[in-house]
Each structure stands twice: as C-alpha cells, then as structure tokens.
Design goal:
Length: 224
Amino acid sequence: MTINTTSIPRTIVVGDIHGCYDELVDLLANADFAASDRLIAVGDLITKGPKNSQVLDRFIADEQFSSVIGNHDLAVLRYWRGEQVTLTSWQRKAVEELQRNHNSYQRYLSSLPFCIDLSTHLIVHAGMRPDVPLLKQDHRDLTELRTLGEHRTSREGTAWYEAYQGEQLVLFGHWPAPEPRRGRRAIGLDTGCVYGGRLTAFIIETSEIITVPAHRPYASKAPN
C-alpha cells in the first residue's frame, strides 16, 4: 500500500479506466488519495467496462479529477453531436447506458482537452509524433497513435514512444500491455484493467508506479 504521510500535494496519473469504477476506487484507497492530491486520467474513461456512468459522475463531481479525451470517449461524443461515426459494439452499449443523462455527459466530454501540459510532464491519450511541436500535433495522433508507419493505429512497426525524445516526459494510455510501456521519455499506463489486467497509475512527484488488479475481465481483447 502507498500511504501519503506528508502534506505535499501529489499528481496521480491513471491509465485507461474504461468504466472500471470499482478498480478506480481500489486504486484511490491504495494510494491513500488525500484532499490535497490531484488525479488525472489519460482518457478512455468509458466503454467496455460495467460502470461508465459512475466513472463520469465521479469525474464531473470531483474537482480533484481531470482527464484528457480518449478515442472511445471521442467516438461517443461525436455520435451525440450527430456526426457520421460508426460505433463499435462497446461504444453502442455505453451510449445506451449513458442515455439517461447524456446531456450532462456530453458537456463534460466536450470540455476535455487532447493534452494536459504540466510543464515537466505531458498527458495524452495515445501518442505524439517525435520532433513535432505540441501545438502542431494532430489530434488523431494524440488519440490514436501507436506506431510511426503508414497507419497510425497499427501495432506493427516502430512504436512512437521508442523514437520520442522530447524534453517533457509523456504519460499515455491507449495501448494495453501487461506492464507499463516505457521509452526514454514516455511511460504507457494502460495495463489492460478492463481485460482482467490491472489499473495502473504514476505519481509524478515520486515517479512511483501504483497498481491494483481487476476484479474480473469485463471485455475480450479486439484489434481496436
């Protein structure tokens, strides 16, 4: 267990939650989350998991919580806006679950940025093109990038975080793995909680990784 024995505020960056609200509660307890702390999510707050509304309600209600937008969050938001978007079965199920209060949820998702700049650290959902200034990054890369080949979503080729050497440490999600993905200047925090893996977070002030196991698998892995 990680216990906050000092009054120093901490910034805790958590990987893809995907509606895994119970595991989020476990992680906060494990971290001894305090009133002076801040939680930032790397996006994909919803879809695939069982408690999408509880996750969004907590983020909306709690001023200590913030997030960037993930590709699944963005797909649901675009659907609510009336854009032409093909939803996956996971996304359609989330839309049905959230329909009762979708106006509030739409306003919240609309407020989420593609990147949170903490000076020493950057939080994005998926990735960043090496040697491209932050303000010129494509939002599709910020929400979908895995590798640097022709197709940004491909799992084959050079991972962006292996080539990235920016001054700021990038904390990202999107690409689940059994352990956090690591580059010289990037750490991936999606450890597949929704698939029965773990929910993982990084404490910026101490560079400490904290993690809790999933209660059970909620979804089977798919290409996207």
